[in-house]
Amino acid sequence: MIYLDNNATTKIDEEVLAFALPFLTTNFANASSTHRFGLVANEAVKNARKQVCTLLNCEPNEIVFTSGATEAINLVIKGLQSVPNRKHIITVQTEHTAVLDTCVYMESIGYEVTYLPVQRSGLLDLGLLKEHITENTLLVCVMFANNEIGTIQPIKQIADLAHEKGAYFFTDATQAVGKIPVKVNDLGVDFLAFSGHKLHAPKGIGALYVRAQAGRKAHLTPLQHGGGHEKGLRSGTLNVFGIVGLGQACEVAQKNMEKNTTKIAEMRDFLEKELLKIENTFVNGNIENRLPNTTNICFEGADSEAIILGLEDIAVSNGSACTSMKIEPSHVLKAIGLTDEQAFQSIRLSLSKHNTMEEMKIAAEKITKLVRELREML
Ligand SMILES: *Cc1c(COP(=O)(O)O)cnc(C)c1O
Description:
Blueprint: E1 2-3, H1 14-20, H2 36-56, E2 63-66, H3 69-79, E3 88-92, H4 97-108, E4 112-116, H5 126-132, E5 137-141, H6 155-164, E6 168-172, H7 184-187, E7 191-195, E8 206-210, H8 212-218, H9 240-276, E9 281-283, E10 294-299, H10 304-310, E11 314-315, E12 321-323, E13 326-328, H11 331-335, H12 340-343, E14 346-350, H13 357-377
Parallel strand pairs: 1-11, 3-4, 3-5, 5-6, 6-7
Antiparallel strand pairs: 2-8, 7-8, 9-10, 10-14, 12-13
Helix pairs in contact: 1-9, 2-9, 3-4, 9-13
Pyridoxal-5'-phosphate (PLP) binds at residues 68-70, 96, 98, 143, 147, 172, 174-175, 195, 197-198, 206.
């Protein structure tokens, strides 16, 4: 398998697995238990929390472990219902469905939600954002980096605009954490969500960063009640294996970030350059402000579903969503101005440090051959 779908999920690192596995086997204790084994698990959780904080540049009491980004996103958006008077949320059309669907839910309970459009590059127009933030705006919610096209938004400037009007700023940084520097203190974000399995940690673990200052004022309402874990924000027995894995993955990511970014971007650029040699192809989104591992390419006249199937041992994706037996074009590609047809002819290739240049050569050759074959069949 040549795996080029790392924005969907990543392979767990061997060293991360080796580090976390004993917490499923030899020491499976509950981190809340007061016996010796529980204390060891509790120490391991504390250590993991520190590792996460080192990557994000925050304090241990600002991290809430969750089951993933989706839960963290739900926790912050729904949790802010406790704030009185402000009933308006601003988000962006290219957000992940975890954000968009939660916002639709907020509309159903009486909130007004503005879904801002983006430019052809995928970037948000800050002037437009500024026009929409009012004294009634509770939350501005803009993703750090897009999962389909990789566009990186100017997070600090967006946070500043939100704060000027007293609104909170939340970013879904699931595609950014571990890939590019994300320092919450420098950026001034109030809430940030991410997920372990996007950075070579296990599935089923993620975290919400809650800025200590913001948290005191906002008093997030928890989604689940119970044992009062995670300072009451997320009750339920801690996933020690997942937490320890997430912490270790953060440390590994931090240690090798520059080296990996260079290597991954080189491979991505090579692959992209080779694929653009095919006639009638173009890159979707912004080439400058983009994740180093992602490219999204439209192959006009070749159906993306046929490409995915035809590639067999090469894993790539299109952003289409299957909703009740109808296939919908990617809402992200639509938002940057592609026609339905172009969206259905676009493929996302997302790399990781586990890929090799040799794989890029094979993938480029196979995709080129397949696209030409598919076009001939038209
Ligand atoms: C993957 C992803 C999510 C959802 O993460 P889960 O771990 O499935 O909850 C949310 N936002 C973005 C940008 C993602 O890429």
